[in-house]
Amino acid sequence: MNERSFNFWQVEITLKQSITNLRKGEKTAKGLLLAARNLFVLYGYSAVSMREIALKLGINAGAIYNHFPSKQEILFRLLEDHMLDLLRQWKVLDYENKELSDQLILKKFVNFHINFHINKSKEVFLSYMELRSLDNKNFMKISNLRDEYESILQNILFSGRRNGNLSFGDPQITSKAILGMLSSLSHWYHQKGRLGEEEIKTIYWNLILNSVRNDWKTNV
Fold first, then answer.
1. Does residue 102 contact residue 217 with C-beta atoms inside 8 Å?
2. pTM attached to this predicted model
3. Are 85 and 22 found together in one domain?
């Protein structure tokens, strides 16, 4: 083996080690986020320390700072990841909406929101209960993402009203009322409850449709 081939071999080994370490680091960071999420839900953000988060994952207390500089950063990441995931998943579905009626698009949004929030109940709880724990800079970033999501519903409503298929008063109040009703589901829904997921979707959809529909166009 000549010197040049030996150097290439060393570089390849170093690169593989770096990739392995990166993957381990990413896995640890995800584990810390999950541990923090569970602790924040159980005890509240202010009552949980960085040390407790690290111990929950079984790592040295000081090692957590290799991944997150502060508890505030962990909370921000949890709330940001939640909102970005919400927006990303709707964007995928939105590509299929071009040929649908306004009422069907609204129904699709309602069902999407319910599905997402039932499956992400802990993230939803944090996004509402611990939003106040963010510092001003992070609060504004999350608020902007929430506004972006709310604007999706407002655009659906505007389009329906413009086409004569939906009828409502103030669009901002209407969208906030709909989102508030939908998001509250995560606080009380239980898989073993009296009503199944599909039954709940039907009830919620009828409530929302009756609040925004034009009486002569209700074939949904």
1. no
2. 0.80
3. no
